[in-house]
TrEMBL record:
Assigned keywords, A-Z: ATP-binding, Kinase, Nucleotide-binding, Serine/threonine-protein kinase, Transferase
Name recorded for this polypeptide: ATP-binding protein
Keyword set includes Nucleotide-binding: yes
UniProt keyword Kinase, yes or no: yes
Pfam families (alphabetical): HATPase_c_2
UniProt-listed InterPro entries: Anti-sigma-factor_SerPK (IPR050267), HATPase_C_sf (IPR036890), HATPase_dom (IPR003594)
């Protein structure tokens, strides 16, 4: 069964952890593995906290989630290959030192990779073998799109190759307007629209690949 991947770049800061947890919760729900949502969020919190503590506040980092047939892999990449996470025994009154021990207890396995330009600390959670079949179907996506376009006073008729050239052109103009409005809204709320477009393209390609669709 093919895997699907979601990637998000961020700055490792304490105030970002809540947002990262929310993103992870949304993504695992989208993939149909909400049963591991709480555990995944805890692991992300600890992996990011490890970067903040041992590499530095506001370190550029990347969070990658990869779902396969039986595993959800959570990976946090940072640029410092020297500050390697270790599993230590924390005592009862210690304020820190429990991060990787918690990850080790929650995950099926964890480790550190050194790709040459930093390090990747990762862990894997066991998931049900059929979860990739729970992602939204193409019919579900079409229904969501139809509801969005209805808000633009556009009557969407999905007739594939039989759609007229005029109908196709009208559809494209309306969809471009929807995307443009979404980008304006995102920028107004402080989001990086280029990053979001890249992530949308990555998701689109991953989902087509997972479904075995031609390009």
């Amino acid at each position: 069964m093919p895997s699907v991947t979601w990637v998000h770049s961020f700055l490792a800061q304490a105030q970002e952890v809540g947002a990262l947890r929310a993103l992870v919760a949304t993504q695992v729900e989208f993939w149909g593995v909400s049963a591991v949502s709480d555990t995944a969020q805890l692991c992300v919190s600890e992996l990011v906290a490890n970067v903040i503590t041992h590499v530095g506040e506001a370190t550029p980092a990347t969070l990658t989630l990869t779902l396969s047939a039986s595993r959800l892999r959570i990976a946090v990449r940072d640029p410092d290959a020297r500050a390697l996470p270790t599993l230590v025994q924390a005592h009862g009154d210690d304020e820190g030192g429990r991060g990787m021990a918690l990850v080790s207890a929650l995950a099926a396995r964890w480790g550190v990779d050194l790709p040459g330009d930093g390090k990747v600390t990762w862990c894997e959670l066991a998931v049900a073998t059929s979860v990739l079949g729970n992602a939204p179907s193409s019919a579900g996506r079409r229904a969501r799109v139809a509801r969005v376009l209805t808000a633009y006073n556009y009557e969407l008729v999905l007739v594939g190759a039989q759609q007229s050239r005029l109908g196709m052109a009208t559809t494209e103009v309306t969809v471009v307007q929807v995307i443009s409005d979404l980008l304006h809204w995102l920028r107004a709320h402080g989001h990086d629209v280029d990053d979001i477009l890249d992530r949308a393209q990555t998701r689109f390609e991953a989902e087509r690949g997972a479904a075995g669709l031609p390009w």
